[in-house]
Amino acid sequence: MKHLILCAIACLFLCTACFEKDKEVEEIEVEVVPPKFNILECERIQTFVNGVPNGEPRKPRATVKKYLKGDQPIFETHTGGAFGYDHVVIAYWNTECKIVCNITRGIIADKPCSQSFLDSLVYIETVWIDER
Q1: Is residue 26 part of a domain?
Q2: Residue 31 located in a structural domain
Q3: Cis omega (within 30 of 0) on the bond before 73?
Q4: Distance CA 46, CA 26 (A)
Q5: From CA 63, how far away is CA 55, in angstroms rounded?
């Protein structure tokens, strides 16, 4: 009988030793911040910004604006002037410095923007403006 009791105690001890208490897991909320991207560092945008002062001042002024399309930043370069001017170009750029689409007056657009694309843009801020 002693052996039976000792075996039962040993089995009970072994069974309980195999199970660890569940550790409480502390959840930590981490805010995901998209990397900072400066469109003005894009070589083609720099060329645009540096070239604007070589032309005549226009109204509205030439600008670079930031939009969001979903969660992706999209940047707009506008040569300035109303569509009454020749060669008004509005181009939309992604964070890889590539043109997504453009709207032109006076020349043929190589990547025309769809109305649904334009409607999906949410304005964030003006990044640069021709101050002349």
Answers
A1: no
A2: no
A3: no
A4: 47
A5: 14
The one-letter amino acid code at 19 reads: F
pLDDT per residue, tens digit, the chain (132 aa), is 555 565 556 555 555 555 555 556 677 676 655 556 788 888 998 998 988 888 888 888 899 999 999 999 999 999 887 766 667 788 999 999 999 998 887 566 678 899 999 999 999 999 999 988
CB 115 within 8 A of CB 48: no
CA-CA-CA-CA dihedral for 53, 56, 58, 62, to nearest 10: -20
Query: What's the total number of domains in the chain?
Result: 1
Alpha carbon of 17 to those of 5, 11, 13: distances in Å? 18, 10, 6
What is the residue whose two structure tokens read 């843009």? 121
How far apart are the C-alpha atoms of 48 and 64, rounded to whole Å? 10
Rounded CA separation 94/118 (Å): 14
The answer as to whether 66 is a domain residue is yes
Alpha helices for 2-131 (secondary structure H): 2-18, 43-51, 115-120
Both tokens of residue 2?
Answer: 């002693």
For residue 77, the enclosing domain spans: 57-129
Is 47 a domain residue? no
